[in-house]
Amino acid sequence: MKQKSTARLKKRYIQTDGSSEAVKHALLEYMGVSGWARAAPQLLPWKKGVVIAIRREMVDEVRAALEISSPAIRVLRVSGTLKGLH
Q1: Under DSSP, is residue 84 helix (H, G, I), strand (E, B) or coil?
Q2: How many domains does the chain have?
Q3: Residue 41 pLDDT exceeds 90
Q4: Helix 20-39 to helix 59-68 angle, to the nearest 10 degrees?
Q5: Each residue's pLDDT tens digit, 51-67
Q6: CA-to-CA distance for 14 and 58, rounded, in angstroms?
Q7: Contacts for 10 with CB less than 8 Å, ≥ 6 apart
Q8: Residue 69 belongs to a domain with what CATH number?
Q9: Is residue 1, in this structure, part of any structural domain at all?
Q10: Most CB contacts within 10 A, which of 14, 35, 52, 77?
């Protein structure tokens, strides 16, 4: 069954240079479980680091959580498509 285009989650992709475990820890530590649920992150392995697919409304909160965390995690780029991260 096909979803209506208005019912789809609108996602943004954040490219980071940290490991998957470090990103998970940073998001849970600074946003908590409810923030995790609102952002609905999906961690995708990437060439160098991790790409996080999140809801469009939560970009600022997720980016802030990653920037505040350890200096080992940096936000490299934010894009509306995976193709835009190349």
Answers
A1: helix
A2: 1
A3: yes
A4: 150
A5: 999 999 999 999 999 99
A6: 11
A7: 55, 56
A8: 3.30.70.3250
A9: no
A10: 52
Cα–Cα distance for residue pair 38/14, rounded to 1 Å? 16
Would 43 be classed as within a structural domain?
A: yes
SS3 40: coil
Residue 2 in any domain: the answer is no
Which structural domain, as residue segments, surrounds residue 59? 19-79
For the chain, counts of helices (H) and of strands (E): 2, 4
Q: Which amino acid is at 86?
A: H
Q: Let me know if residue 8 belongs to a domain.
A: no
Q: Please give the DSSP secondary-structure letter assigned to residue 58.
A: G
Stretch 21-46: mean pLDDT:
92
Are 7 and 49 a contacting pair, CB within 8 Å? no
